[in-house]
Amino acid sequence: MLITEYVFEIYPNKNLMTIIKNITYFALIMLVFLRSATPSETNQEFNLAEIAKNNYVHTGNHVSIEDVGNDDIANIGFIVGNNCVAVIDTGGSIKTGKKLKNSIREITNKPICYVINTHVHFDHILGNKAFLDENPNFVGHKDLAEAINRNRDFFLTQFKNNLGLKAKASDIIGPNILIEESTELELGGRTLTLIPFSISHSHSDLIVIDNKTKTLWAGDLIFKERIPSLTGSLKGWIKTIDKIKKLDVQKVIPGHGGIAKSLAEALKQQQDYFKLLLNQTRKAIAEGTFINEAMENIDKDNQLKWLLHDYQHSTNVSKAYTELEWE
Predict the structure, then answer these.
(1) Mean pLDDT over residues 193-211, rounded?
(2) 58 neighbors 255 (Cβ within 8 angstroms)
């Protein structure tokens, strides 16, 4: 059906000029709407969403670090204040970092004053170089600079394609501001609280809270859907989560997985998994089960239905076993 035929059906008593005016008016309204829509509504290429006022998140993909696309597996994003912008994690490649920076520039021309890294893992920091020309302060846990220095050769060897074929050690950008205790950063009408933690998921974890919207950027201290990766301390991570549970926050952005509307929603699956991992590993040790047997048998049925369970879980058991066997 032609649009004029449709309009004649709904406006049978209108003359042609009135119909044309109605169509033109409707078209102008649609044009204004599309021009005024936010980038998160119109640009789906980079999967960007404004999940709280001026908090923009790009959700990573659920693939392993050995797969194609491993540079885009983490949740990354930015917060816009009245004066400037803070970036929280930059992705696992310079290319992903550039995409994030371009998405910022589609929304605001305000300067990028901070690039905050929640911890050392490649999928959260290798995009830092894309922001050098913005002259931001790079911010991280008090142990992040040392952790990056220890891992430079590893990153250059294992993730050379993510950094570029001519990559060099100086392309891996570390922090110039180190966070030793709870610290506030001001963006102009919007204050961020950064809290560092002792060994948990990694040796350099911190969280970011946007106090205006009570939005928690948890980094990899919280996983949803995708199985947690234990590279630090299981018992330390459990203690850290107990502290995070006391925070006054609403929406939660995990390091991997979907946005949660509460801490309880964000933590349920992960807490159940840690309880299972802790108890069953202790039981295996008490019964004299060897580590290889424990890796094969503990939670082999994936009770909590994690994504990438087959890829990561046995490594978690090995890490937990090594930590717990000398309790």
Answers:
(1) 98
(2) no
